[in-house]
Amino acid sequence: MPLELEVQFEIVFYALAAGFILGIFFDIYRILRGKKGHKIIVMIQDILFWILSALAIFTFLLYTNFAFLGPYVYLCMGVSLLIYIKLFSKAIYKLENIIFFGTKTIVRRSYKNASYPLRIIWSKINNKN
């Protein structure tokens, strides 16, 4: 039984969105993984990322289009991922990098400022002994 045209457009739209979301997750993963590391560890991390991504995309498609995985769903996801990587990845990667390291800096400075009085008290206690 063929699907209605409206349903097919929804499936294509959600497949395109899934590819775009996968691209964003890949950029976040690249930031968290970093550039250095042992090749075997990086390979294991890559495999785990793609397994987790496959589960996340399947869950996304399950909730949006009842996990209808026709050939054009894979094609649309691949095309949107390729478009994301070629057109948007560089700018979004920079933005995510700024957000990630800005948040990291704020948390680190807040922790240092909040723990400063405790470190002074601790050093005074240790100097008495």
UniProtKB/TrEMBL annotation:
Segments traversing the membrane: 12-29, 41-63, 69-88
Keywords noted in UniProt: Membrane, Transmembrane, Transmembrane helix
Domain of life: Bacteria
InterPro entries referenced in this protein's UniProt entry, alphabetically: YabQ (IPR019074)
Pfam families: Spore_YabQ
UniProt protein name: Spore cortex biosynthesis protein YabQ
GN (gene name): yabQ
